[in-house]
Amino acid sequence: MFYITGLGNPGEKYKNTRHNTGALVVESFAKKNKFSLFNTDKKLKALVSFGKIEKEKIDLIIPQAFMNKSGVSLKSIITSKKKAENLVVIYDDLDLPIGKFKISFGRGSGGHKGVESVVRSIKTKDFIRIRVGIAPTTPSGKIKKINGEQKTIDFILGDFKKKETEILKKVFKKVNEALEVIIKDGRAKAMNEFNQKP
Fold it and tell me: Which of these, 5, 88, 110, 137, could form a disulfide with 61 (CB 3.0-4.6 Å)?
């Protein structure tokens, strides 16, 4: 059994913002694999969808609390170390350029409030993360630093531009492939395959 959660903020206002990347990935995964339609689970404060990849059961969870309370939706589901190891948390990362993503396991939060909330709620950092880059880049592909807290907040809560949306479609396709490898062959194989240096 795998649990895949995409972090973001609830409500139409935030739907296509950069900070909602995790939730958008999970929606695209559900669509591609013809999972059940997302339903609201009031107890979990989340949207949930169910399906299978081959024989493996998958629960998709999109928390409907704000980012810094994301973990609330996982507290009653991820109740053991074993379950945590089959949890995949997908979220936006300002330290990665748009167009890139990285799979890791058992790492720190890198200051991401949603991940901090998950770690606090499930009392372990031993789960799989997929960080999806949202950072703007120069024409040569270098990350453009955003200076100042307010500018950073405005950027992550801003909507994706048309050009970025095109890049994201390709990334989502790749992340969907990576998720399938994690489910069928394990996280180590997925890391080897998808964390290659360009």
Answer: 5
Q: Give me the half-sphere count of Cα atoms (radius 13 Å) on the Cβ side of residue 10.
A: 14
- pTM exceeds 0.85 for this model: yes
Q: Which tokens sit at 150?
A: 């307010």
The CA–CA distances, whole Å, from 45 to 41, 103, 183, 197 equal 6, 26, 25, 38
Helix axes 162-185, 187-194, angle to 10 degrees: 140
Res 141: pLDDT: 79
| Edge-first strand listing for the sheet containing 87-97 | 39-41, 46-53, 56-63, 2-6, 87-97, 128-135, 101-105
Contact between 182 and 43 under an 8 Å Cβ cutoff? The reply is: no
- What is the pairing mode between strands 128-135 and 87-97? parallel
Low-confidence ranges of the chain (pLDDT < 50): none
Q: Is 19 a catalytic residue?
A: yes
End-to-end CA separation in angstroms for the chain? 32
pLDDT in tens, 113-143: 999 999 999 999 999 999 999 998 888 878 8
Q: In Å, how far from its chain's centre is CA 62?
A: 9
Check 18, 19, 112, 129 and give the catalytic one. 19
